[in-house]
Design goal:
The structure is a single chain. By secondary structure, this protein is of the alpha/beta class. The chain is built from 7 helices and 7 strands. The longest helix is centred in the middle third of the chain and has 28 residues. The protein has a 7-stranded parallel beta sheet, sandwiched between helices. It has a single domain, classed as NAD(P)-binding Rossmann-like Domain (Rossmann fold, 3-Layer(aba) Sandwich). Strand 5, helix 5 and strand 6 form a beta-alpha-beta unit. Helix content is 38%, strand content 13%.
Length: 276
């Protein structure tokens, strides 16, 4: 427990956030920095991660850094672990946030996001980043935590780990059935699997003081078309999508001593969508 008495205090704790240059990755890092933690933003592209880390360092006065790594390759993750330990001497938190966001480019005849046409290569790429990457990062960073007094892993799942996507909200008028866009199958599969990985790791490392939880956020408003937003919000009891910053409190809670008696849990923060 923190000596300062603030259960949400992360002062001095080093937190690795994969997909750190992405929309929510940056928000997770911001939440950790605001609580005094040291965010390490990891992304396939160093520039975006480094720029956002520099901004966080300036704003919060913490030693945030950006690093490049392909999380589907264990040697790169191991090299990253060595770099972090050499720089900070500790590793306390892992946020498995990285995921593919495939741009499904339809031909004039089919839409490749549809299950019947979904390419095996896209399936393998999405699983590799969203699931295998989380497994490898947990293996490399979690093993270090387990051997050095404990730590925290947070897997970023989704409300679609609990419910199926309502494909009606993606439909477009005057588009043939075979061209209608859908939420790709890999999104649901990866996010559901992350919840299973959470339970496995939580029980596996419980005696090593490594706590592992998941968070299942709902949709974030990011300038989506008005008709899509209107259809989606009718499915949400709170009647709106989340603001970009509204998961920060949950992330700090799961990363800090405030959740010290939680492990193996999936924290659902979806505006109530999955309760309907």
């Amino acid at each position: 427990m923190t000596e300062r008495g603030n259960l949400f205090d992360l002062s001095g704790r080093v937190a690795v956030i994969t997909g750190g240059a992405g929309l929510l990755g940056e928000q997770h890092a911001r939440a950790i920095a605001a609580a005094g933690g040291i965010p390490v933003l990891v992304d396939i592209q160093r520039q975006g991660a480094s720029e956002k880390a520099a901004a966080l360092s300036h704003e919060y006065g913490v030693r945030a850094i950006g690093c490049a790594a392909d999380i589907t390759k264990q040697p790169e993750i191991e090299a990253l672990r060595a770099e972090i330990l050499a720089r900070f001497g500790r590793l306390d938190i892992l946020v498995n946030n990285a995921a593919n966001n495939p741009k499904m480019e339809a031909s004039t005849e089919v839409n490749f996001s549809r299950l019947e046409n979904f390419p095996l290569t896209q399936w393998e790429a999405d699983i590799a980043v969203g699931l295998t990457g989380a497994f490898l990062c947990s293996k490399v960073f979690g093993s270090h935590m387990a051997s050095n007094g404990g730590g925290v892993i947070v897997n970023v799942a989704s409300d679609l780990a609990l419910i199926a996507p309502d494909q009606r909200i993606y439909r477009q008028p005057d588009v043939p059935e075979q061209m209608q866009p859908v939420k790709p199958v890999t999104y649901s599969v990866v996010k559901s699997a992350l919840v299973g990985l959470t339970r496995y790791l939580a029980s596996y490392w419980a005696d090593k003081k490594v706590r592992v939880n998941a968070i299942s956020p709902g949709g974030v408003y990011n300038g989506q078309p008005e008709d899509f937003v209107a259809r989606l919000t009718t499915l949400i009891p709170l009647g709106r999508m989340a603001a970009i910053s509204e998961y920060q409190g949950a992330i700090v809670f799961l990363c800090s001593d405030a959740s010290s008696y939680m492990t193996g849990t999936n924290l659902v923060v979806d505006g109530g969508r999955s309760c309907w």
